[in-house]
Amino acid sequence: MNAGHGVEEMLRRRFPEVAIVKGGAELAKAFDECDLLLHGSGPSLVAQKDVARWHEKTGKPFGVCGITLPDPNEATIGVLNEAKFVFFRDSVSLQAAKDKGCRAPVMAFGPDGAFAADVRDDAKAEAFLAAHGLEEGKFLCCIPRYRHTPYWRIPEKKRARDEAKAARNDEMKEHDHAPLRAAIEAVVRQTDHKVMLCPEDMTQMRIGKEMLYDPLPAAAKKRVVWREGYWLTDEAISTYVRSAGIFGNEMHSPIMGIGNGVPAIVCRFAEQTSKGIMWRDIGLGDWLFDHDKDEPAQKLTPAALALASDHAAAKEKALAARDRVRALQKAMIAEVANHLPR
Description:
Blueprint: H1 7-14, H2 24-33, E1 37-39, H3 48-58, E2 62-67, H4 74-80, E3 85-88, H5 91-99, E4 107-109, H6 122-131, E5 139-143, H7 163-190, E6 194-197, H8 204-213, H9 218-221, E7 224-226, H10 233-240, E8 245-248, H11 252-259, E9 264-268, H12 278-281, E10 288-290, H13 295-309, H14 311-337
Parallel strand pairs: 1-2, 2-3, 3-4, 5-6, 5-8, 6-7, 8-9, 9-10
Helix pairs in contact: 6-10, 7-13, 13-14
């Protein structure tokens, strides 16, 4: 496991009894001692080779919780057919797997694991909010995103620039952020709320400034805070729970928001596969907008305004979705327990 930039320390604080295995003898020992392999949420069967290795070397059970499977190939279906259970984080993926011949004994909708994220760093969050004049319950969080994450801008990723993806990003960045800017301007003009521009990955501070903050009128900028530096999940969640809600082009911050009872609007596009459909699956279809259609341009602004102007109703809706997710995740964990020694 690679968990740099303070991530490992954050995980150890929250889960002091969990071993973090990084390969070699530690991994061999884990293969020998563990009774079950559990693959967590992701945009595919991300660790397919590792899961197949576990199955071949140990013969012990494995299962999958909360993945998207946009276009499963024969090899992926072959691995999943050996699983004791497979939970898909959106209904489109579940149906796609069935159509491609997946026949695991248990196959069902199971929400993304990030809904259960509860790490906190209240001190850092409170300090940042105080320093930037953001009052609890009186600001919305807005998150930008390119169509394709430009990993080539993150030095440690050591990725070559992908010219086709970069071109697509440039082509669509105004189209995908103009509705967010319109919503930001409406919120700061028509309500007493401010807006905080937040990153979900290390490339998003730059596009947030370029496409959301810099083009705003001077009057609007006075009520908008651009977060220049990156943060870890614990500070992010501690910030989200102090906000009136979240909107933008990302998925996992809204997931963590709903998991903590925070209203959250998702704007999606084709490059994000079908994972956004989980918003419909948990009863939040009217908080899901598609940049490849007309909804964000036409409907995002009134939806964002409603988070600020009728927060009680928005909060009630978020809590209902959270409770539905918790019930589904409880069922997933019960299935995990079925395959552990008693």
